[in-house]
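Quick one: structure for this chain?
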Amino acid sequence: MNADGSDVMRLTTNNNVRHFYPSLSPDGQSVLYTSFREQNVYEIYSLNLSNNNVERLTDRLGILTAPEVSPDGSLITFARGSGTPGNNQSQIMMMNSDGGDAGNIPQISGWDPTWSPDGRQILFASGPDGTVQLFVVDQSGRGLRQVTNLPAIRGRSDWSPDGGLIVTYSGPSWNREIYMMNADGSNVRQLTPTGGNSQGPSFSPDGKWVAFTAYFDNYGDDHGCEIYILRTDGTDLRRLTNNDYCDYQPRWGP
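Got it. Here's what it folds into:
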C-alpha cells in the first residue's frame, strides 16, 4: 500500500498457503517473503512487481523466516530454524540474491535479521543466555556485540536510513511498546504512546516516520491489530489500515 494507507494491493494469490515476512528490495522492484511449503519447511520467494512473476529461491533448507535484501542488492539475510523437536535454535543465514551459496554466519544464532544501511552489519535478536536482546555482527561473523538491555525484546527491529538509530519493541504480552535508541544502544526511549501493544517497527526511507503494528483501537482483540505510523519524535500517530483481520509486520519500501 502507499505510505498513507491508500491503494492497498494484494500481491500473493494462493488462498491455501500461508505467507509471512514481506520486505521490499532496495530498488523497490521486488518483494521477498516466506511461504509454507510443508511441515517444517518454509521457503523464500521473490515476487517481481512489474510482471508478478514468482521465483522460489530456496529448497528445503528448513523453517526460513525474515528474508531481507542487502542495500546493494547482492545478498539476502534470513533466519533458519530446524523444526527438530527439542532444538529451538535459529541460525542467521546469508545467500546470494538468486538463492545461491546459502550458508550460516558461523557461530551466530538468532532471528529477525536486518541489514545496516551500509550493508556491513546485521542487526538481529538472540537469547543465548535465556534473555532475548538485540545484537550486531559483521557479515563475516566477526565483531559480535550486544546493543540492547531491555526486559522483554521480541525480535523485529530496524535501522534508521543514516544508521544512527535503531527501533525495536519490548514488553510483556499485550503491553509491548516501540523503543528507539542510538545504534550503540544508548539513549533508549519509548516512542509509542502507552496502551497500544505496539510491535514490529520499520523506519521510513527519509527517517522521519516509523510504521508498526498496534491495537490502539481494538485492544484485547487477537484479530484487531492494524498498521499505524508516527513521527520519530513520538507525535502525529496515524492509523493506516482498517480490516477485520490482523495487519502486521509492515516494512517500508524505498
